[in-house]
TrEMBL record:
Species, as recorded: Verruconis gallopava
Requisite cofactors: Ca(2+)
Active site (UniProt): E137, D282, E389, E423
GO BP terms in the entry: carbohydrate metabolic process; ERAD pathway
The family this protein is said to belong to: Belongs to the glycosyl hydrolase 47 family.
Catalysed reaction, written as an equation: N(4)-(alpha-D-Man-(1->2)-alpha-D-Man-(1->2)-alpha-D-Man-(1->3)-[alpha-D-Man-(1->3)-[alpha-D-Man-(1->2)-alpha-D-Man-(1->6)]-alpha-D-Man-(1->6)]-beta-D-Man-(1->4)-beta-D-GlcNAc-(1->4)-beta-D-GlcNAc)-L-asparaginyl-[protein] (N-glucan mannose isomer 8A1,2,3B1,3) + 3 H2O = N(4)-(alpha-D-Man-(1->3)-[alpha-D-Man-(1->3)-[alpha-D-Man-(1->6)]-alpha-D-Man-(1->6)]-beta-D-Man-(1->4)-beta-D-GlcNAc-(1->4)-beta-D-GlcNAc)-L-asparaginyl-[protein] (N-glucan mannose isomer 5A1,2) + 3 beta-D-mannose; N(4)-(alpha-D-Man-(1->2)-alpha-D-Man-(1->2)-alpha-D-Man-(1->3)-[alpha-D-Man-(1->2)-alpha-D-Man-(1->3)-[alpha-D-Man-(1->2)-alpha-D-Man-(1->6)]-alpha-D-Man-(1->6)]-beta-D-Man-(1->4)-beta-D-GlcNAc-(1->4)-beta-D-GlcNAc)-L-asparaginyl-[protein] (N-glucan mannose isomer 9A1,2,3B1,2,3) + 4 H2O = N(4)-(alpha-D-Man-(1->3)-[alpha-D-Man-(1->3)-[alpha-D-Man-(1->6)]-alpha-D-Man-(1->6)]-beta-D-Man-(1->4)-beta-D-GlcNAc-(1->4)-beta-D-GlcNAc)-L-asparaginyl-[protein] (N-glucan mannose isomer 5A1,2) + 4 beta-D-mannose
Residues binding Ca(2+): T515
Protein name (database record): alpha-1,2-Mannosidase
PANTHER family reported for this sequence: MANNOSYL-OLIGOSACCHARIDE ALPHA-1,2-MANNOSIDASE 1B, MANNOSYL-OLIGOSACCHARIDE ALPHA-1,2-MANNOSIDASE-RELATED
Amino acid sequence: MIKLRRAFPARRASTRRRLVLAFFLGCVWWIITSVLFAAPITPEWAERAVTPGERADVVKEVFKSAWEGYYKHAFPNDELHPLLNTYGNSRNGWGASAVEALGTAAIMEAQDIVDTILDFIPTIDFHRTKTPVNLFETTIRYLGGMLSAYDLLTGPVHHLVRKRERVEPLLVQSQKLAEALKFAFKTPTGVPWKVLFLEKQESDGNPSNSAAAVGSLELEWTRLSELTGLLEYRTLVQKAMKPMLNPRPKRTEPFPGIIGNWINVNTGQFTDAWGSWGPGGDSFYEYLIKMYAYDQTSYDVHKDRWIVAAKSVMNVLAETPRGSNLKFITTTDGKSLDHLSSHLECFAGGNFILASKVLNDSRYLDFGLELTESCHEMYVRTATRIGPERIGFSPEGWPKKQKQQLEDLGFVILDPSYQLRPETMESYYYAYRATKDPKYQEWAWDTFVAIVTHTKVRNGFAPISNVNRIRWNWKFGRQESFFFSELLKYAYLIFADEAEYQFNYDGLNNWVFNTEGHPLKVTRPW
């Protein structure tokens, strides 16, 4: 009897281990079969929604569904990890998805979501975080998101808030965030550090910062000065921009207006001549023309620098792959072109279209539409009808398979992943608003349906590993906060009714969108 009693616990433990192992293997098998083998299913509304109003309603429902998944499994953390129904804090744990979703929810008049996020905003402590802070990402996402929501909720959608006191924390928290960040500009040149440790008020000591990271702060910090009446914030970013607008040494401006991607914050000098309208450079050029749109009396130098850079893009960096009618913006190493492009460059179509309105020059409209069409072709020529992360178009030294793909597609897919990026949808938005040609609405709808079809999982949306594969297509990663602020916002606005925050090609504009899709009120109409 004693031996039997002693044997029972061991036997029960062994049984428990087998059950745990079986459960674990079952979960793994479920993930593999549901994610790897399952064929994507086109949503039933894809053909049912025909009118712009019906399609806007669908986009709103997709937004609400994505919000519910995030709220259930990740709020108030930064983002949802949709495959595991857990959360991540890649943006310092301050609730990036909530902050970035607020403006979109306000535009869609999703009252319950607006109320939830407004309740959350005052609870954020921007002085506390356990992780390094990226000044650029924090500015465009948090500062841009809160200032935009403030402008919207005190302006065109003020009816969503009964008491002004509900909105004021957006401005108060924006100022608190700026106060926590402003030590970044304490360098010999005023060019800010890239990575910060807020609790110690220190940088990581790396003197390199990118053109995009330095050049994409001015809109948000200037708007903060405008709203608070405190000139300090505007002064900080104006000083930071001086070396950007007059790059040294001269060899780091290989073509007029095209500057190197990296600058030393201690010397104010650029350290290379690698120029790009893609990673490392993109939003620097984007903000040149947007700052002029924000205030045409104060930013003539920005306008002039954009015009010079745009000419170099049109004459040098815009490349047509051999045997195709496509046009993509490539990168230069300072001497030659590298014949590569990426999804990020697809913002440029919209930026040129915006500039054509600001500068009243139809050449930029034509060129912007051409870039937008090429990015559309980058989408529809893949199996999923979604554009890849990175492409190339020079066959020298490539294997036979890639050369054949170049002939078939007009480009070679170098990184086949799709990471929920919004740049092509953004350019569709500007193209439609400028021309009112319904084909851009059809392109946007086709892209939206494809993205939902291939990235939707139970509680959210996940990046996919290969846009040129229907099955055996691994999903991975996180649902980025810009999925709420950019992709779904631009998709909605393409079909939405007229509103004062819409880009208006034939009339006056009172708003300009930051690089994260957050509309900000301008100083005077343009």
